[in-house]
Amino acid sequence: MAAVAVKLAFIVYLDGRVYQDVYRAIDFGMLIDNGTLTIHTGIINSKTFVGPLLWSRLYGCCGLNGLLAFNLCMFVALFAVQYGLGRKRYDTGTTLVALILFAFYVGTNRNVAAGEPDDNLAALLFAGGVLVYLETRRVLLAGLCMGVAFLFKFWVPIFCIGFVAHLALQRAWRDLAAALAGMGLPFLVLNGIDGLASLRALLFSLNVQHGYSDWNGLGFKLLSTGLLFMVLGSVWVWRRQRTDTNTLFLLVSSTYFLYALANRDAFSASYVMMLCMVFASFLLAELVVHGGYLLGRAARAGEVALVLVLYVALTTAISYLNFYRDTLPIVLLDDRAAAQQMFPWNF
Known about the structure:
By secondary structure, the protein is an all-alpha fold. Helix content is 77%, strand content 1%. The protein has a two-stranded antiparallel sheet with strand order 1-2.
């Protein structure tokens, strides 16, 4: 409830301001609905047409408040999935700390309060797929969840690499084949519907994102988002506790870090980190609860509480300082010329 209250406070503070990607998606969906564009044209990079169509219709029906309410619901659902991931695999203290680390993380605040429904739904579907796998071992269903998540954000396959690597390390070749089939099927079906427009959008996105960040920008993102520290802390814990669950969570949460270095692209780190934290938070929580400050002893309850209070205060302050600077009021396109300026590769 405290995490929801913080996000509601930020929503009120922003007073209708959102990230540019949000109203671009709404505009794109509206352009498809009114016939200015079709699903068979090029698509805005980073996603297929599915999300923009959904969000434009939700916005048209319920306004921005409906979109933000959807984001809050996705956050609550993702919080529940994270609890499910940790409930039978970590002790109560570790799970509680992990939930707090995720719930108050700056990237979580950003995605929920400033209206990033594509990122939220993609994260929920992917994390839900991992939970399905851990609870039932139904890898085809898990892969399908991840494949549907891919329709909302093109960064999802980066995390799928970590999941696939886990299956490969276990030499579960049949499971690996079933998972890959599930991951690819939704995108294959969608391309049959839109005449390969989604595939062209993916290739366009890959070309744009390659080398997108300079080395200084890459270093800044790795530090400012905490991604570097997240990976280092997770690896430290994994070296001491190499359980199957820790291995899976490390692989899934660290693949974006490896991608950012290999492709020199950390542009989306601020949003993608929310999903990283769903999994890495358990390893980091182990570090906080059982490693102590000097990693030599378990932390006392008072020490853990102090760390969490400082963490929540810091992440909330950072969110507050950056929100208004990075957000804009929603701009709806009213003619073809404006649409052509916003989406030039579609004309």
